[in-house]
Amino acid sequence: MPSDERILPLFPLNSVLFPGESIPLQIFEDRYKQMLKDCLDADSRFGIVLIKSGREVGSPAEPHNTGTVAQIVQSTEIDGGRFLVAATGVQRFEISEVLQRRPYISARVELLAEDQDPWLPNTEMEVIRQAFTKYASLVSGLSGGWTRRSRGPNDPVALSYHIAETLQVDLDEKQALLEEPSASRRLEAELDILRRDAEKMSQRLFVEMMSRFGRQ
User: Fold this and answer.
1) What count of other Cβ atoms lies within 10 Å of the Cβ of residue 93?
2) Other beta carbons within 10 Å of 149
3) Which of 47, 61, 151, 202 suits a disulfide with 8, CB 3.0-4.6 Å?
4) What residues contact 23, with CB distance under 8 A and at least 6 apart?
5) Can you tell me the distance from the alpha carbon of 62 to that of 66, in angstroms, rounded to the nearest whole number?
6) What is the pTM of this model?
């Protein structure tokens, strides 16, 4: 088997995991308990893929073709034989062939490296960071909370995944970002989303502030 291919158990979810980001899981179905045991007996890695059709519970769901390798960081058994699992995204992959569907889905996958597009100019990277900082502040303002200003990771690839994880968009849009072949293209797509949604959130925040303080 080529070095960029491997056999991976798959966990279809209504969620998109990005490399470098974390995800908490609660495992209670027998098939995924078996998957967890098999993973812990091997290298503690499995694949998380967004469900294309079907459900998380019950019959095997049909996954999207691109997902993320997840590394189990911690696994704790709790009441009722359930398990709480903390996992971290490692690397993107593409399904080459589904090998089995029961008791859980297992597939031959190709591990995906980032395409080596030229990095975006520093001026454009600064525009993206400023747009992300503004977006994060608006999200915090609308939720009534407070967050320390963050410009995200310095590395462009890590930044592209961090922004994708933070964006409050639907799962199909997140999946499209995961499927982008390079950080440059992903960041350019994210800048469009940041600008689009920041304008909408600014309007919402203005209306909320006016309704809250306008009559005083």
Assistant:
1) 25
2) 9
3) 47
4) 15, 17, 48, 70, 86, 87, 88, 89
5) 12
6) 0.87
Q: With 70 as the cut, is the pLDDT of residue 58 above it?
A: no
Distance between CA atoms of 195 and 160, rounded to whole angstroms?
15
Dist. CA 117–CA 96, nearest whole Å: 24
Q: What contacts 32, CB < 8 A, 6 or more positions away?
A: 11, 104
Average pLDDT over residues 118-143: 85
All domains of the chain in start order, with CATH: 5-111 (2.30.130.40), 122-213 (1.20.58.1480)
Within its chain, how far is the Cα of 129 from the centroid?
19
Q: Are strands 83-100 and 106-111 parallel, antiparallel or unpaired?
A: antiparallel
Question: What 3-state DSSP class applies to 45?
Answer: strand
Whether omega for the bond prior to residue 103 falls within 30 degrees of 0, making it cis, is: yes
Q: Name, in order, each residue with C-beta under 8 angstroms of 65's C-beta and a sequence gap of 6 or more.
A: 94, 95
3-state secondary structure of 18: coil
Q: Let me know if 115 is exposed, middle or buried by CB neighbors in 10 A (0-12, 13-18, 19+).
A: exposed
Quick check: 19 and 76 in contact, CB under 8 A? Answer: no
Q: Is the pLDDT of residue 1 over 60?
A: no
